Amino acid sequence: MSDLAQTISEVFRQKKVVIVGDLVADQYLSGTIDRVSREAPVFILRHDETVTLPGAAANAAANVASLGGRAVAVGLVGDDANGRELSSKLDECGVETGYVIASRNVTTTTKVRILAGQVHAVRQQVIRVDYENSKPIADDIRAALIANLRSASEDADAIIVSDYNYGVADHALFETALEIAREREIPITVDSRFRLAEFQQATSATPNQEEVEQLLGKGFSAADCDRLRERFGLEALLVTNGSKGMMLVEAGKPYLQIDAVGSPEAVDVTGAGDTVIAVYSLGLASGLSFADAARIANHAGGLVVMKKGTATVSLDELIASMRADGGFSMSKPAV
């Protein structure tokens, strides 16, 4: 038997994960409340700084890289300031961006969170402004995305499809990813914002409670989830339930309830699902069982929700959390 906390530091570094889907710029505009406007009964916010971080599929890629995996992003940004800033941030995170297309015909999807507070007070989010691309993705760009996916995945150990319903992860792209995964005999995982039914026959998927409720209704059971898993042709379904932890349903096995790690009061849940699928997929790419990969992802999720804003988890943080929980003694995975 081997301590998995020690093992993952070795096997994660050897794995290449391709992340394909919606790349989003998460911006945090923070400022100091200066005074009340004479024009209307509203506060005037004096701008302090604006920080851009990788969001959605870009955040999943950043998490793979922060854990030592080789992260390769496949997606689309606008040939604009936010697109360039997002690509630059991904480069800084160690994510390979050579397969990211920058197009003048689209606008980089950007979520601007306004953080306000008085001089010596903690900044609080008061509103979010979303800039979404409204133009259809041209056929030549879609063809280029598919070609990039094929090239990026030639030596991949896993593929993540991250769908935030912004148009990149369409049927043709997913079918290509599925074909590649089958040919290479590697896991393909899906995180889809309310469109899971359109991404069937993957290895596994990681919907949250709200997304499953949309499919099954409130009060769903483990048996309901297992039937959903079978209906969508998945080998395993990992349902994230916030402070209640996770539930894993796997073909031919009893369901597994995994209790949440850490404080029940999250600081910020932004991007937690991206972290979960990144770690879960790295685990599967490393030869771990669904259960072991889910347990590790649970620790990563517990760590990232205690950080402000869109965040990543480092390998040292993850190992320390697992050590505190006994390190998970289990057989060493195949490398």
Word description of this protein:
This protein is of the alpha/beta class and about 325 residues long. It has one domain (about 1-35, about 45-330): Ribokinase (UDP-N-acetylmuramoyl-L-alanine:D-glutamate ligase), CATH 3.40.1190.20. It is about 35% helix and about 30% strand. The protein has helices spanning about 5-10, 55-65, 80-95, 140-150, 170-185, 210-215, 220-230, 270-285, 290-305, 315-325; strands at about 1-5, 15-20, 25-35, 45-55, 70-80, 95-105, 110-115, 125-130, 160-165, 190, 205, 235-240, 245-250, 255-260, 330. It has a 9-stranded mixed β-sheet with strand order 6-5-2-9-10-11-12-13-14, sandwiched between helices. Strands 4-3-7-8 form a 4-stranded mixed β-sheet. A two-stranded antiparallel ribbon has the order 1-15. Helix 2 crosses helix 8 (about 270-285) and helix 9 (about 290-305) packs across helix 10. Residues about 330-335 have low confidence and may be disordered.
Which features does this protein show?
four-stranded mixed sheet; UDP-N-acetylmuramoyl-L-alanine:D-glutamate ligase; single chain; nine-stranded mixed sheet; 335 residues; alpha/beta
